TrEMBL record:
This is ABC transporter permease subunit. The lineage of its organism: Bacteria, Pseudomonadati, Pseudomonadota, Alphaproteobacteria, Hyphomicrobiales. It comes from the Bacteria. PROSITE patterns: ABC_TM1. Its main location: membrane. It is a multi-pass membrane protein. Residues 104-310 form the ABC transmembrane type-1 domain. SUPFAM superfamilies: MetI-like (SSF161098). Belongs to the binding-protein-dependent transport system permease family. CysTW subfamily. It holds the Pfam family BPD_transp_1. It is found in: Cell membrane. Keywords: Cell membrane, Membrane, Transmembrane, Transmembrane helix, Transport.
Length: 322
């Protein structure tokens, strides 16, 4: 009887202690969720709403160079009256002018080819890093990250000195007798591909290395023991297991490459038609902020498509893993 009397307070104290420890844990869990969503709200949704708001405006000779749309100073009634007067003329204009459509298509094609080339270059590098001795991997990883220690703009300017007709590449090829006259590489799409592959290669290598480094290579040895050729083992075992890294790397390269401005402008020349350069011209040269904002909104919608596809593929992979 006394034992039962003693156990009741002990149980109550234990429940109170467990409840006290759960409260900070639940608060911490909520805080971990709130922080990234607050970050997205402040630095993504609010700027996007501002850009979308400008895209519904009309160009004007003023500062800023557009007529305000959705002005909240007039209260709720004023906002409702403005909603009835909103115009999507800027988006209609983008469909009527082939310049913007061609810029979108060219940007997507250039980004797609650059992503494929980056994958072809980065996959062997990541595979070699994952198979290297464990003591050597941190050094190789540092060498991949090392270009980030130098300014992106300086690295692009360095490629101008390499690719121009009297640059280092042509001097080397001419001195070895491989070519008889300088190659015209600068101010072409070839130079753009070289610049994008070089600049975004670490973004491809790092997720590939993360996926390949976790792979169980005893599966390859088992397949080879069963008579599977190395190439077949790679395509049936290694590559499928590295697909999450491939998809992540392709997204990290493709998305910024679509809207790239510096590389096409410096390496591709003035004749390059890409959406990043078109945006810059509309904002700075033409001072047409509403149209350029509409271009930016449509560009964002175009870039959301591969992200949705990637999330859908990840969800399917997780379901199959279960």
């Amino acid at each position: 009887m006394a034992g039962a009397t003693l156990s009741a307070p002990t149980t109550a104290n234990g429940a109170a202690a467990a409840q006290a420890t759960q409260q900070p844990t639940s608060f911490t869990g909520k805080l971990v969720i709130i922080i990234p969503y607050t970050f997205l709200l402040v630095f993504f949704l609010v700027p996007f709403f501002i850009v979308f708001k400008i895209s519904l405006s009309q160009v004007a000779i003023a500062m800023p160079p557009y007529t305000p749309a959705l002005d909240f100073s007039g209260g709720i009634s004023g906002v409702f009256s403005q909603l009835k007067e909103l115009s999507f003329d800027n988006y209609v204009f983008l469909t009527e002018d082939p310049l913007y459509f061609n810029a979108y298509v060219t940007s997507v094609i250039v980004a797609g080819i650059s992503t494929l080339l980056t994958l072809l270059v980065g996959y062997p590098i990541a595979y070699g890093m994952s198979r290297a001795p464990a003591t050597l991997r941190p050094t190789l990883l540092m060498l991949v990250i090392l270009p980030f220690w130098t300014s992106f703009l300086i690295r692009v300017y360095a490629w101008i000195g390499i690719l121009k007709p009297e640059g280092l590449l042509n001097q080397l090829l001419l001195s070895t007798g491989i070519i008889s006259e300088p190659l015209i590489i600068l101010n072409t799409y070839t130079a753009i591909f070289i610049g994008i592959v070089y600049s975004y290669l670490p973004f491809m290598v790092l997720p590939l290395y993360s996926a390949l480094e976790k792979m169980d290579y005893s599966l390859i040895e088992a397949a080879q023991d069963l008579g599977c050729p190395p190439i077949t083992a790679f395509w049936k075992i290694t590559f499928p297991l590295s697909l999450p890294g491939v998809l992540a790397g392709c997204l990290l390269v493709f998305i910024p490459a679509v809207g790239e401005f510096v590389i096409p402008d410096l390496l591709g020349g003035s004749q390059t038609l890409m959406i990043g350069r078109t945006l810059w011209n509309e904002f700075n040269a033409n001072r047409d902020w509403p149209v350029s904002s509409a271009v930016a909104v449509l560009l964002l919608l175009v870039l959301i498509i591969p992200i949705v596809i990637f999330q859908h593929a990840q969800a399917r992979a997780q379901e199959q893993g279960r």
